[in-house]
Amino acid sequence: MANIFKDTKGKGIKETKDTKKSLGDLPAEVLIHIGLALPCREFGRFLQTSRTIHSCLDSHYVWHRRFTTRFGQAILEDKLNPSLTNNDPSRMSPPLTSSSPRFPSPNSQTFHSSSNNNSNNNSASTSPILQQQFDNHLDPVSAVSSPLPSAASSPRLTPSVALHTLPSDSSSDDGSDGDGNGGERSSSSCAKRPPKGKVRRIDLRRTNMASKEMLIDMYKQLSRMTLPAEDMMIAHMGNQFWRMITSSESKYGKLAELASVWWMDVVAVFVGVPPGRYKVQWRVKVTSDAPVVNTEFRAVLFDKHEDPNTAGEKPNALTFRPTSKQEFVQQTDSPGSRVHKKPFRNLFKGFTILELPGELLVEGDYHGVFLQIRNHDDWKSGLYIDYVRLVNLDDPEQSQESLANGLHGQRVAAGNEPVDDEGEEYYPTSSSSGPLPWFQQTLGINPHARVDPRDRFRSRAARQFRPVNPSALLDVGARTVPNSTSAPANAGGESPSTARNRGDQLDENGQPMERPDSCLPL
Amino acid sequence: MTVILVSSDNQDFKVDKEVAERSILIKNMLEDVGESDSPIPLPNVTAAVLTKVIEYCEHHRNDPIQVPEETDDPRKRSNDIEEWDMKFMQVDQEMLFEIILAANYLDIKPLLDVGCKTVANIIKGKTPEEIRKAFNIVNDFTPEEEAQIKKENEWAEDR
Questions:
Q1: Which of A19, A158, A280, B47 is the most buried (most CB within 10 A)?
Q2: Portion of chain A with pLDDT greater than 70, in percent
Q3: Mutation for testing the B interface, residue in A11, A29, A33 having most B CBs under 10 Å
Q4: Higher pLDDT, A120 or A498
């Protein structure tokens, strides 16, 4: 490296500057400092500039620092100390029982509760999410070559049970006693792990045994901004309720397919998300309204030191709960203007991108993002999940992907295409939640009957003369009116009962449905 | 209490002790020297740069001293540069490098951080070739090496 400053006194500064200074001439520690300040993409590009810079920055130390700065040290410790981690069976294959779908799967209860009280080789500090994400994709080559010490052989890694039975409160305390807090059982400083949930000092000695290849590999996995279905935590994933299928419709080759489930709970966790504004996008195929109507799509932010398992209990940063198909479709890139005229299964021509309304704002430091799709009421089926991703609105190269910027405009313009429903009746063929089935029943509409188009009118006319007493609608018999949309917004100014008397069909909001054009006026 | 700092080109600078001690190097020197009034020589820092460094330390004289070890505390970390610091750093590239080097030599961590973040901001959004051009870096890779390293780091492009 060029000697930039001469240390002999008295010499003028001009003599030291015969060539224009280059960044590569700066001392290594300064280059490292600059490298650590760079975001991921720029760091990768910076490495490509010259040999000096590459050899200085593509080092174990720098990757170690970058990793712990972005993702925290806890994840690395969990990975390196497998004996201390909780040996939960994978959430992807819960035991199959026919009655289970009404309740969360046994694993998901572990997942949702904060303090695991497994006595022996437990760890409240493990995150099965991240464990699973990483394990699914560990490059076999690096797994063989990286010298992961087994806990048995390394005397430092004495399991310290007392450490992990401490309740993990997620208050961010002063970091200065994070190191000394917790179990004092182990005399070695490396085995003393600060309790989960507390802010702690980064001490690279604790995780020095991770090789550079391992660090880079983990960094690659954890920094993904798109998560495929197989890296999500899906309750009741197995064979009967949800299953993973291979498919060419996904660039990952796999989809999560919902056969039928009551307790629908899908979680995707991102960690180390850089500060910025994000949109959440789910790529899904929907063939029935049940999985999406009244389903909550939510996003929660959590700090680096917090346990991802408990993140779901925090207040929402974003939430979207469509109460109708139309509301759902508004947030997707599908042409949605023909909601009531097309058979539902043609509504989404294959996969669609659902973009949650609102922006996810990550401020200050790297944060974790906890995303969830949940609906714990009633049976539903007909959903395929490809992936979920975070689109960074602050990044000019990425922000084009947001529906708010791009496809949205296209969608609105697509409202004039001709309807081709092949004369089919518009009735969802799968059982759906909401008051529609109840109205159908009361009005004598049989959704499963296939009717010849000409006969359709006759039967409707016949129906018209059936006296429908408004009070009959109140007499619900054994079935209670679902309360989700029981107060229809009478935007049209017409009361639902009048509409019913006319024999008009009602959608689940109690509003008169538009009649197909081919219908005779009644 | 004032101390006298002497730059490499023999210019004297009188500063308050408190301001001078923002530099850990100077702080340690003063502790070693004790109550002496003798000026402190800084052979690695020229007058122009020292002026800027002192200006920074004066402005930030009341900032809390940072904990020496890095913490995970999200409250303490911010990726944004203060407005005053941003204006302060609007100098030509040579001076920028020299300030960074001086901050490194004098061990003034906040100034070093700001300087490096400024350089990082210049790098943002640039391709490797553009980075080389901006900072006068010579590409000493062979084409094969360059292609290999590019491939190795391709994954970082959309992270």
A1: A280
A2: 49
A3: A33
A4: A498
